[in-house]
DNA sequence: CGATACACTTAGCAGCGGAGGC
DNA sequence: GCCTCCGCTGCTAAGTGTATCG
């Protein structure tokens, strides 16, 4: 029934090996029948944490040992003939200044360099990095010439691409060696993959949207900036020769291995484990279990907030309307933000200019038009028909307010979350997003899956269900540069395939006619004739299959051009729903989860059978 | 009580490598 | 065998939410 169990098992093993960083040799015969997997060493498989007891509160691990982070490669000066120009003339720069100049030069063909804020911020920091003499000369950004440096880096990049196989292999091996040494840690006796074991290299800060700090220089991180977290009795990672860590601590109530403070925004950055790790997997599992608990009380919560639309207290009304938006539209909570960040909002931080009320719009009544920059400055635009009571409340909330005023002036995320905590243990605003996303996937799959369909058809159904979630969560992407072209190519291919089918059909008909010749003539030839027919018939079937697949691909790609499916798959959809769907519908899991996703969701593959329901 | 610090999840994008078409 | 293009992966910014501070 489940054809791919064997394949799935194999995948698990591969994933496990990947996680453990072991070498494995898989031998496959030509027929693919005798498949043996040999391990170099017998080591424990990945922790089956989902079969273990939960740990006492707050403590995240007992032992933790690692090698510390990998530092960014040190700066190498550009060749002497690659020069920075000022006012049309070459100008020799000190090492530090030159490095800063290369940050900008590398981005010369980027959109960022057309933005005034970016250029101003860069130039300000650029001047800070200069020697007094340089600062005396370089006073006007418009007189700076980065082109030669830019050309140099382009050429270097071309060179790298054109490198020989051997050179590339050497690079690859070096990388793997680094990964092997620094990419893993030992935690509670198990080897686990680290997520980001390299410190962020210096460069220019690339904020999203209209970020006031874009273009500022993100400085190089040294050992003296880095805090290390590891087990008390473990070997402390060694800093580069001649340097010391900022601090070494042994805090087992947190999950990070190293941290530093980034200079542009003053935020703490961390080195943490890969999503495949027990620590992350457990947390992920809990997240979905919380969302499932919400399912049990959601009717009551909805009834309550509808009731509260009528409350005497403005505070309660606002809370109830906000919660309705969060539930119905999957809006984010909307924490307050500082002035020195891009101006984006979520539910609680909506301002009056972000919503428009229409008694009637396009044949719908009581329409609220949302139009605001959300996370990552992605535009949220939605025309929503709402209950009359909500509409009336919004009119009330907006009374006597001007642009820039908060829509929900008696509400913030802390207040909202405190209220939610009363309704259900562990309930916060973001649980609604997880809940509605997973719930939507489940119901859409139920709706769209035809059990008798082919695998490609089922996959289209799955993608459409996934897409419904991505739309709900407003997971957008910019239309890929190559979209137009790739659609054309696909159409071309489809045309060609149709022609091939026509051709094949006519040939098939001819050969059918041939077999209808008088028996006597055919007797001797019957075997070859039949096989030729069979061959044609099979070819025709295959071509038709291919055509169908292409057509499905066309639909899928076009529907997907501005929608990103990955984010919801990775962060919002209970993977057990997908696993169960695959098992039930005989779709190989690798058709919907790539290798990374399978490693991250290994727990779900084990936990869910075909009857799992969210 | 509001501000700030901290920890951790969620997000889109760029660059790269390898599969698949010619 | 070469080239194109597409998906994967790494990167790091930008959110959420709780704890702690003053």
Automatic annotation (TrEMBL):
Residues 204-586 form the DNA topoisomerase I eukaryotic-type domain. The keyword Membrane does not apply. Belongs to the type IB topoisomerase family. CDD domains: Topo_IB_C, Topoisomer_IB_N_htopoI_like. PROSITE patterns: TOPO_IB_1, TOPO_IB_2. Its EC number is 5.6.2.1. One of its GO terms (biological process) is DNA replication. The active site is at residue 572. Residues 533-560 form a coiled coil. Transmembrane segments: none annotated. The keyword Metal-binding does not apply. It is found in: Nucleus. One of its GO terms (molecular function) is DNA binding. This is DNA topoisomerase I. It catalyses: ATP-independent breakage of single-stranded DNA, followed by passage and rejoining. One of its GO terms (cellular component) is chromosome. Keywords: Coiled coil, DNA-binding, Isomerase, Nucleus, Topoisomerase. Releases the supercoiling and torsional tension of DNA introduced during the DNA replication and transcription by transiently cleaving and rejoining one strand of the DNA duplex. Introduces a single-strand break via transesterification at the specific target site 5'-[CT]CCTTp site in duplex DNA. The scissile phosphodiester is attacked by the catalytic tyrosine of the enzyme, resulting in the formation of a DNA-(3'-phosphotyrosyl)-enzyme intermediate and the expulsion of a 5'-OH DNA strand. The free DNA strand then undergoes passage around the unbroken strand thus removing DNA supercoils. It comes from the Eukaryota.
